[in-house]
Amino acid sequence: MCDSDDDCGDKSDETREVCLQIECSKKERKFRCNNLLCIPIWRVCNGRDNCGDGSDENTHHLCEPKEEICEQDQFKCTTKECIDSFKVCNEIADCADKSDEIGCIKNAGAVNCSIDNGGCPHNCTDLEGGGMICSCRSGFKMKDGKTKECVDVNECELSNNKCPQLCNNIKGSYKCLCHEGFQDPLLPTPKCKYTKEGKISIFMSVGSGIRRFDPIIKEYMSTLLSIQKSQGLAVDIERSTLYWTDMISKTVMRSYISQKSDNVGIPQDLKISNLDEPNGISIDWTSGNVYWTDSKKKTISVAAKDGRYRYTLIKTELRRPYAIVVNSQTGWMYWTDINSYNPR
């Protein structure tokens, strides 16, 4: 029961309702996986996927390095690492964020941390040979040019906030959120899991056609026919539309995705002319804009979802742009350049 094996033959021994009735807690020295399996807690974060879904090795929060505890003769950087106290305020940055050289008050005479915390808003550390340094708690940093003023750090602007989808900055910390339809109340933040009902489909380009694969029933279905040679492929989930580049007709095309797996879509040419070798394609799902690369023209272009308002974004310093992807959340665009001299 709840061991990922269908012992009953109808999977009734692996349902969520049944598995949640099994005692699986830290008190029992056990860990519940995302797929509801229950494993010994000593197998968690051991470098092996014992759950089968990777949830026991999740580095977002479960297996992240523990905060280092500093010794009495050490100084804790804002980035949480520890350094020797004699390295503080020596005009050499030993902390990754230089917090050991910010907030220094040297040769302060009688002023030290024992008197009103040295006037520091958060932490105060006495220096060897006199003086002190003010530092901020986690989630804050010393204000530029100041020695005794801490301001909030916007973790959502940093790359290490560990949020898989959305990030909401709060004073001294941050909170991870999920897009609508991705929050499972049984999963701890910041995990996001697709919860909407409906089919899961994988679309793939197969030359003269585009096929849909159902990973649940493990079956292939024809989605689009009468295509000369599809190359790049992108799916606009919000608008149930499939976009692709065609190497023979040298254009960008699209088709509505039917919710019925046995329906075949009808290709529509967006009439984007003067393309030589269209390859990668990506969709900005917030605006519906379409981005694509032209390997021969050495350009990256964009157009509205119906092909209008075409504009060439990049036409210099490209050798052979190929794959492309747009991150709608951050506003960044990424692509590969597969030239033989300096691929990047």
Overview of this protein structure:
- This protein is mostly beta strands and 344 residues long.
- The protein folds into four domains: 1-66, Low-density Lipoprotein Receptor (Irregular); 74-151, Laminin; 155-194; 202-337, TolB, C-terminal domain (Neuraminidase), CATH 2.120.10.30.
- 1% of the residues lie in helices and 32% in strands.
- The protein has one helix and 24 strands.
- The protein has one helix spanning 16-19, and strands at residues 30-32, 38-40, 74-76, 82-84, 104-106, 123-126, 131-135, 140-142, 150-152, 166-170, 173-177, 202-205, 210-214, 219-224, 230-236, 241-246, 251-256, 268-269, 278-283, 290-294, 299-303, 311-314, 321-327, 332-337.
- The strands form nine sheets. The chain has a four-stranded antiparallel sheet, with no helix packed on it.
- The radius of gyration is 28 Å and the shape is flat.
- The model has no long low-confidence stretch (mean pLDDT 80).
| Share of residues in helices | under 10%
Number of helices: 1
Overall pLDDT level: 80
Any idea of the CATH class of the largest domain?
Mainly Beta
Superfamily at the CATH H level of the largest domain?
Answer: TolB, C-terminal domain
Oligomeric status: single chain
Largest sheet: 4 strands, antiparallel
Question: Can you count the beta strands?
Answer: 24
Strand content: 25-35%
